[in-house]
């Protein structure tokens, strides 16, 4: 599942975004995952049907890179080491590659649920024009 | 679902139509009205009835595809998610309105359309415009929904010998273009050519203004014009890649494919183009009706020449079809059944064709002409065929398919013309394809067909025709002779037999043992 976020609220307000950006940079640098060469979207828990569907939709290159990053991070973690500094994830590389797909899958699912629970009302005769039903 | 006003309107329309129908001498309402909006061509005929049909006919069949499998892919991708609606939403909405979405392809055209209740025209005009211009081609949709279907289709094709034989005959006859198989005949397209981006590029060519036309049946022309104007405004005016195919050339030859699942044998000869095309020959469809094979009467073999020829093999499927395309055609005689049946009948089929080239009895000819006319009119009257023919006619020559003209040209066919076309077919190199047990299935040369170059026959004919009258008649008689033999038993000469016939009979006997 995706994580809760205030980002949309903040990005809508440029002044707030100006304030928050340095703070968020500082926070993410200190979160530590970048020092293991990971991206924020690598931290989304996989044990979820939605995320599993989304992972299947990654392009072959992205899926390969994701596995590579994870294995490298796992190796570092076992060895109690951090990557050399030039291999740390740069903030420009730390873009959401999985999150949009998860959102799309969620939207599909909600749409399906909505349509499944839809109640159909018969058109009232002569009140409305016939083509206004949809 | 129908409101009172809708019923009222439909009733009024059908009443008006009936009046028009009574006033006009011929079937007036079968005429297509054509128009153009924003450079998009459209045609419609307002047949009375509560159900209408609307379809995009795109010149994007297997003949024009830029890489193998793209037409099939585009057909299967129709009505998948667009910028505005998801696949599911499209499905559910069309279900709620009570309609049927359809997409299919032929060698030349891709047809994407819907059948619906008359009043829902605006919804489906908008939907078709969305499918044409706003479809999102995504890799996961390809992988999850399109490719599995194509793979199943491929498997089905590989199990069907008749379909394989027909496609192989087309390949032999036309090589590229029209000769490209209608269905995926190998898995290469899936592994190599079919991707979401290739499909998006092909869609940009297939759904550009010059490549498609919109055809409506049972819709009001004014209404259709209005909605096409509104929804089809932002269709690209030029195709991404021009879908041009050269003038079709007939080659001919023979192909034999071993197969364990069944036995099929297809003979093919160059035929006629569509009525809106350049080389339209109505006599070909009369010849097809004359040869026939399939009975129009239940529980009876019928009176067509081929059903007589196949009398000894009642379990074999035999049929003659005149397949028409924009600039060429192919007359196919298909046989499907046991190998020995095919072996024994194939020679007789060629004999039947030769007998037509010699002459046709008046009664047979009249029957065939009536049947051909009926078949043509019945075919054209059905919406599915009329939609495709009209759409293709509009795209290629800006002419709609008019059923009345076709009937008229059919009346002009004479016995002489049918005889002539049969003769030409026999002189030409035939396309022959055998799929199944190759040990038993005959070669083209064994059943007396010309598969080598036409050159010899043409040269001989030219020489003979340049002779003086009396000598020419003698020489022409010689040209029609074929090998005959008689068996001598107990010092007496037996019956004169044609070598080809006797050979076939002996082989069939051998195969049956």
From TrEMBL, chain A:
Any one Gene Ontology BP term: mitochondrial electron transport, ubiquinol to cytochrome c
Record InterPro entries: QCR7 (IPR003197), QCR7_sf (IPR036544)
Keyword terms of this UniProt record: Electron transport, Membrane, Mitochondrion, Mitochondrion inner membrane, Respiratory chain, Transport
Entries under Gene3D superfamilies matching the protein: Cytochrome b-c1 complex subunit 7 (1.10.1090.10)
Its membrane topology: Peripheral membrane protein
Example of a GO cellular component annotation carried by this entry: mitochondrial inner membrane
Protein's UniProt keywords contain Electron transport: yes
Principal location class: mitochondrion
Subcellular location: Mitochondrion inner membrane
A Pfam match: UCR_14kD
Family statement: Belongs to the UQCRB/QCR7 family.
Protein name: Complex III subunit 7
Protein's organism: Oleoguttula mirabilis
Lineage summary: Eukaryota, Fungi, Dikarya, Ascomycota, Pezizomycotina
From TrEMBL, chain B:
Record keywords: Electron transport, Membrane, Mitochondrion, Mitochondrion inner membrane, Respiratory chain, Transit peptide, Transport
One Gene Ontology CC term in the entry: mitochondrial inner membrane
Every Peptidase M16 C-terminal domain range: 198-370
Protein name: Cytochrome b-c1 complex subunit 2, mitochondrial
Taxonomic lineage of the native organism: Eukaryota, Fungi, Dikarya, Ascomycota, Pezizomycotina
Keyword Transit peptide: yes
Region annotation (Disordered) ranges: 1-28, 489-513
Composition skew (Low complexity), residue ranges: 9-20, 500-513
The family this protein is said to belong to: Belongs to the eukaryotic ATPase epsilon family.
């Amino acid at each position: 599942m995706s994580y809760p976020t205030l980002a949309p609220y903040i990005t809508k307000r440029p002044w707030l975004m100006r304030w928050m950006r340095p703070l968020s940079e500082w926070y993410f640098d200190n979160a530590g995952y970048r020092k293991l060469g990971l991206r924020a979207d690598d931290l989304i828990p996989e044990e979820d049907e939605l995320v599993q569907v989304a992972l299947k939709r990654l392009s072959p290159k992205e899926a390969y890179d994701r596995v590579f990053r994870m294995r490298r991070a796992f190796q570092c973690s076992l060895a109690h080491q951090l990557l050399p500094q030039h291999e740390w994830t740069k903030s420009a590389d730390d873009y959401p590659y999985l999150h949009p797909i998860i959102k799309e899958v969620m939207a599909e699912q909600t749409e399906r649920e909505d349509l499944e629970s839809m109640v159909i009302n018969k058109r009232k005769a002569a009140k409305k024009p016939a083509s206004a039903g949809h | 679902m129908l409101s009172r006003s809708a019923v009222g309107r439909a009733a009024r329309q059908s009443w008006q139509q009936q009046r028009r129908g009574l006033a006009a001498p011929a079937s007036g309402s079968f005429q297509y009205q054509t128009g153009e909006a924003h450079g998009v061509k459209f045609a419609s005929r307002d047949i009375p009835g509560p159900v209408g049909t609307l379809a995009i006919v795109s010149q994007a069949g297997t003949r024009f595809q830029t890489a193998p499998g793209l037409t099939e892919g585009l057909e299967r991708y129709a009505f998948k998610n667009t910028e505005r609606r998801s696949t599911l939403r499209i499905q559910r909405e069309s279900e709620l309105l009570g309609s049927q979405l359809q997409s299919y392809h032929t060698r030349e055209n891709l047809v994407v359309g819907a059948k619906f209740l008359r009043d829902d025209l605006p919804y489906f005009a908008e939907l078709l415009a969305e499918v044409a211009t706003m479809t999102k081609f995504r890799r996961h949709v390809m992988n999850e929904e399109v490719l599995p279907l194509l793979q199943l289709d491929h498997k089905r094709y590989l199990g069907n010998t008749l379909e394989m034989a027909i496609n192989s005959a087309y390949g032999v006859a036309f090589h590229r273009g029209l000769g490209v198989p209608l269905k995926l005949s190998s898995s290469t397209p899936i592994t190599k050519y079919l991707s979401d981006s290739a499909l998006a590029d092909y869609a940009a060519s297939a759904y550009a203004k010059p490549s498609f036309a919109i055809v409506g049946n049972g819709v009001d022309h004014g209404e259709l014009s209005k909605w096409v104007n509104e929804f089809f405004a932002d269709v690209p005016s030029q195709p991404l890649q021009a879908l041009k195919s050269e003038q079709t050339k007939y080659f001919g030859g023979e192909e034999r494919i071993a197969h364990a699942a069944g036995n099929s044998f297809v003979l093919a000869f160059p035929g006629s183009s569509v009525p809106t095309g350049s080389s339209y020959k109505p006599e070909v469809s009369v010849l097809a009706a004359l040869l026939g094979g399939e009975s129009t009467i239940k529980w009876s073999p019928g009176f067509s020449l081929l059903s007589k020829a196949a009398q000894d093999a009642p379990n074999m499927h035999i049929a003659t079809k005149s397949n028409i395309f924009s600039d060429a055609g192919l007359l196919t005689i298909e046989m499907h059944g046991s190998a020995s049946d095919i072996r024994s009948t194939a020679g007789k089929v060629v004999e039947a064709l030769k007998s037509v080239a010699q002459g046709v009895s008046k009664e047979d000819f009249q029957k065939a002409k009536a049947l051909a006319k009926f078949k043509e009119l019945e075919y054209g009257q059905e919406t599915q065929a009329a939609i495709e023919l009209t759409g293709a006619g509009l795209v290629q020559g800006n002419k709609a398919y008019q059923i009345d003209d076709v009937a008229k040209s059919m009346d002009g066919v004479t016995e002489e013309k049918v005889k002539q076309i049969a003769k030409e077919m026999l002189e030409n190199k035939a396309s022959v394809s055998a799929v199944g047990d190759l040990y038993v299935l005959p070669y083209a040369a064994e059943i007396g067909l010309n598969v080598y170059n036409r050159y010899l026959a043409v040269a001989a004919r030219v020489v003979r025709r340049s002779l003086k009258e009396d000598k020419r008649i003698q020489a022409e008689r010689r040209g029609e002779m074929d090998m005959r033999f008689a068996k001598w038993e107990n010092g007496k000469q037996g019956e004169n037999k044609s070598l080809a016939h006797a050979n076939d009979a002996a082989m069939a006997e051998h195969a049956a043992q």
